Amino acid sequence: MEETNREAEATAVQRVAGMLQRSDQLDKVEQYRRREARKKASVEARLKAAIQSQLDGVRTGLTQLHNALVDVKDIQGSLADVSKDWRQSINTIESLKDVKDAVVQHSQLASAVENLKNIFSVPEIVEETKHLIEQAELLKAHRKLMDLEFSRDDLMYEQYRMDSKNTSDMSLIRIYFEDVQSLSDELAKQLWMVLQRSMGTVRRDPTMLVSVVRIIEREEKIDRRMTDRNKQTGFIPPGRPKQWKENMFKVLESTVSTRIEGTQSETRESDKMWLVRLLELTRKYVLDDLIVVQNLMTQCFPPHYNTFHRFFCLYHRGVSARVQELASEDLEANEIVSLLTWVLNTYKSEEMMGHPDLRSECDVNHLEPLLPQDVVDELLSKYVQTFTSNITGWLRKALETDKKDWQKDTEPEADQDGYYQTTLPAIVFQMFEQNLQVAAQINEGFKEQVLKLCLKQMNTFLIRYKEEAIAYKEDHLRDRQLPQCYIQYMIAIINNCQTFKESINSLKRKYSQSSEPTASDANIEKTLNEVAKEGCQFLLDEVFLDLELHLNELLTRKWLLGSHAVDTICVTVEDYFNDFNKIKKPFNLEMSGEAHRRVVVEYIKAVMQKRITFRNAEERREGADRMMKEAEQFKFLFRKLTAGEDTDRLCDSIAAIAEVFKLTDPTLLYLEVSTLVSKYPDIREEHIVALLAVRGDATRDMRQTIIETLSQSKPAYMGIMQPIFKDITVPSMTMTSMTSMATAKLLK
């Protein structure tokens, strides 16, 4: 206590010291004192109130404990009195056993009297009930059946209460009422029959369906009551519980399954479209039935049955079971697509389960899939295998048909722009288009998969197409008279390559979500370009086979004296290119350029083969003038064939060589040759030697000097410009003959 007082004094001192830190605060001492006095009075009042409250609570608790003690003593006394009375009444209870038996017997007799009318008229009521059942008066029949069952059950229950081990009396009652059970079974059959025809009944006579549901609801109540009594007494009447409500749902489920299975009226043997018809009938029947359920049948069942949702689930399970049966059969490719399209798209669409009239009741997004994903994957895999096999066969047949057309004596058809073509691209891409349209009906992923498969098969097909084009050319070379329209069909083959490219790009734009090129795209592009370029090469080979004799006349003595070889070459090339105009871009332009290059190369080859050696300056001048004239002819021709594109460089090589021949002063020969080399860096040493040999007046020392000087200063060939001399070889005999000629001149 003293310690507490000290702590209080110390706290008070600190508070006073805090209040009186400045001199001006001394004037407020009285104010501080009154404030502290008020605080002290307030604290004391609260403390007194708290103590008083605690004291009141303790007083109340003590009073309640005292009252409880009094009550416990009273209860203890009462229990003692009850125990005393119970011991005294044991003998009295034993003496009342006869009274108890009399009460039970009285209850049985009362029950018998109550059911006496039904007991004596059981045969009559049974017959009357049978008649009502036959007349479809189901509610009245059920009422009489209930009366009979109540009479039987009450009698058996009273017998059970009196002597549960007396089986003979129980059997006697059961035998007497045995027709009641058969009546119950007969009525149940009628109920199930009505339920099996519920879709028709609810349209024609909904009151019949309502009566059936009322009967079943009554029986459910009786089942519950008898089950409860069984728990209390151990007695259950025969035939209970009937569980008609449970059986009703089983019948409805069986009815739905039968209705769905009954939609198949055709088989594959009788109709190739059997599955399409089956699925369409299923869609129609299911949708019609669910609309009937929503609009009519829900009004015939109690709300707690959740009728529409129950039927919705029944139909879903029934359709799922049926679809899984179909999926397990050996379906063809088109049937697999029809089934998957129906399952994955049609089923949940507005045409069926997602119909606007049904949408308010059930959400199709919550439905389980009709087919497990592994079954869907298996069907898709089977379709891909079948499709791969089929498309390989289709492409083979299409190519064989196209090959037969190549042998025809009539020209191929032309498109709207006049370009030759065959039906092969249209046939191939019609097949691809049809299968991609089918795949698109299933889902986007499968569509992409089928597109990749089509492009893969296309790549393999084009390799075969290339081989057949080469074989076509080789067969023609054995007899150039056959086939008669070789040129036209080779042009069609080239044009088909461009059509294939355009069709592939069209398919990808239409059916692919990705614009990224794939390895398959690159392979297809490469193969198509190879087929087209080789086709162009085959046609040019055909041209140059006809030009061979005239090309051999170039730079010969006959040519120098006056030959129409170049005139014939130009006429022949122009005639061929009248047909080659039927080739599509860009191949026609590439072909014109290649023809131009080959003509010039063949002309220069004629120079390098040293078919002529000029004897004097006059011959050199005449030969050079002729070469320049012919170079101009070639320029004119190929400008016309290439629609005005620059053709000068190639033909200028002929003029440049002519300038070497035309030079009259041999001492300036090095400068002229240097100019030629600077314009055409791909020219080689053997080419210069051959040119000097044809010129005929270059001495050995002059040739040696020119070659050595040029080899030291020749510019490097960068491969930028189109090469001319690169592919021109100089026969080895040129060097030998040139040496022998030089020796002969020296001997002279």
Ordered list of secondary-structure elements with their pairings:
Elements: H1 2-19, H2 29-95, H3 97-114, H4 116-120, H5 122-134, H6 138-162, H7 167-176, H8 178-196, H9 198-204, H10 206-233, H11 244-261, H12 274-295, H13 307-327, H14 333-346, H15 356-359, H16 373-406, H17 424-442, H18 444-478, H19 486-511, H20 519-553, H21 557-562, H22 565-580, H23 587-608, H24 617-641, H25 648-662, H26 669-679, H27 685-695, H28 700-713, H29 732-747
List keywords for this structure.
748 residues; disordered C terminus; mainly alpha
How would you portray this structure in words?
By secondary structure, the protein is mainly alpha-helical. It has helices at 2-19, 29-95, 97-114, 116-120, 122-134, 138-162, 167-176, 178-196, 198-204, 206-233, 244-261, 274-295, 307-327, 333-346, 356-359, 373-406, 424-442, 444-478, 486-511, 519-553, 557-562, 565-580, 587-608, 617-641, 648-662, 669-679, 685-695, 700-713, 732-747. Helix 8 packs parallel to helix 11. Mean pLDDT is 86; it is low at 733-748.
Specify the structural class. Answer: mainly alpha
The arrangement of helices and strands along the chain is: HHHHHHHHHHHHHHHHHHHHHHHHHHHHH
Percent of residues in beta strands: under 5%
Q: How many separate helices?
A: 29
Number of strands: 0
